Amino acid sequence: MTSTDRPVIAAVDGSSHSDEALDWAAREAARRGLGLTVVHALTPDHPAERDARRREAEELLARSVRQVARIAPELSPSTLTPLDYPSAALSSLSHNASLIVVGSRGLGGFRSLLLGSNSLAAASMADCPVVVVHSARAEEETPVDEEAHRDIVAGVAADESSEAVLEFAFGTAASRPGARLRIVHGWTMFSSMVSGGPVFDRDAAADAAARTLAELTAGWREKYPQVETVREPVSGSASRTLVTASATAALTVIGRRRGGESLGLGLSPVAQTTLTHALGPVAVVPC
What we know:
Number of strands: 10
Low-confidence stretches: 107-114, 137-144, 258-264
Order of helices and strands: EHEHEHEHEEHEHHEHEHE
Radius of gyration: 19 Å
Oligomer: single chain
């Protein structure tokens, strides 16, 4: 199965968050020339209610197909109702998907939670990139001008995990005419020391970080010359920079793991913070 055979998976549960995620998934599938599969998982508990819940699922999926027709009429989405828990169903479907798109919270989420458990689990376990669509913008009174949010922001580390992040980020930017790719690399004096760079000279450490970022991106800029690229070595918190950038970005791209450190369900500290506090869509790339 080639990447063009693998659809975009949109998970829906009837919440406003999943409606927004479905809109995003439909636009992205159309933009990339991919198929779209709309999924609503039926949890295996409460078997006595299963028939009624299946009818509700069919109604939800039919409404979702009509919603896709309004957003991207060129698509002919398929639908699935796996009998499984949402996180397990999405993890299984990710083996043959190009992308999974979920809302930041579902019907069962508490408003006090910034990220729902199913969204966190999908981002932590899927075999393909997962986009979590945060709804902060949807709650604003004025509609979002998508043309004004043209930046793709990618957070990269100085290791092999950056390859997968850059591949996804450049491919995403290339599919959006006029998009600009901002590549953010956070560094500190401690990280400079650990990597064998300057320890006491901040200017020298900054120069070393800039060189590292240039080396990481050189081949990709040659492969995608049509993509306007900005390199941003940042002294201090990369996650703070990424969260701030996410407010005006079309998409913020981060890697799932880095350097063996993990929080939560296998997310690096930067990924955990960015995914939890972002103000726009975030793509988590397995690496």
